[in-house]
Amino acid sequence: MNKVIEAIEQAVKAAEERLASAADASVLEAVRIEYLGRNGLFPALSRQMGTIPADERRETGAAFNAGRGKIEAAMDAAAQRLQGGVAESAGIDLSLPGRKLPRGHKHPISQLADECVSIFRRMGFIAVDGPEIEDVRHNFDALNTPQDHPSRDPQDTFYFPDGRILRSQTSPVQIRVMESHQPPIRIVAPGRVFRRDTPDATHGMNFHQIEGLSVDKDVSMADLKSVLQSFAREMFGEKVRIRLRPHFFPFTEPSVEYDFSCVVCGGKGCSVCKNSGWIEIAGAGMVDPAVFANVGYDPEKWTGYAFGMGIERLAMLRYRIPDLRLLYENDVRFLEQF
Ligand code: DAH
Known about the structure:
11 helices; rod-shaped; 19% strand; 2 domains; BirA Bifunctional Protein, domain 2; alpha+beta; binds 3,4-dihydroxyphenylalanine
């Protein structure tokens, strides 16, 4: 063993000892400068290589490389120990991912209402709002509802002592918009409605509807059908079909109820659609001329269609929710799924 090898081994031993007991990073830097820095020991030894007899060079070179490697490894180990050391002793593992703070989000009904609005907006409708406390004129009279219509009954609608009501449908927003605007009109109005129902799996005392109204010249049932068809596709996918069935509403003539083909079984028949292949979504029709007259529009000049649908209905289908009440119990385990 020559002198250079001896010096290398001593240096490695000393450096390893200092690094093992280093209390902070300044020791690491000092060791680096002293041994590996430009004016440090290893570069100096490297310059002495030329003085080593030829038959010892190989062995000396190997010891040189190994020694430098050992010091570097000891420096890495010390750096790691110093980094983790403080936190570890305090019982904190800095390498763990952060804890996520729980964050709230919109209620599934609000999300779905937003989605409905954005679908209709792409078809040129504007979203409008109406009051939840209504008067009988907007909720019933102007909508051409006969005086003896059962929906007016206090058994079905909530009346305040002063005669005002909690709106039983979003249709009064149609009246408010037509009273304050001239055609052409293309609006949707999402919102909460109230009915005196006994809550069960498919009924609540309040629920949400989205109302649509389009008034222009030469509006036809075909326009209505194509808007509903496009909505159904956007909401439930390309394969959904719709059908219109004759029905009666005081404010539309002709009136229809419309169904979507069952999105669960694709129309073959299952428990969700009660084996019919169709699911009832809501009502629609051509605006009754009497309604136009009530808001001061010329029924000879203007034509229009209107539709309304239950948002909870859509939610049940979209998310396969078996019981409406789940939506209102505010159980976080349920709401978190949306
Ligand atoms: N307002 C009706 C209801 O709550 C739904 C409806 C039917 C709305 C026909 C409309 C319509 O705009 O044209 O049952």
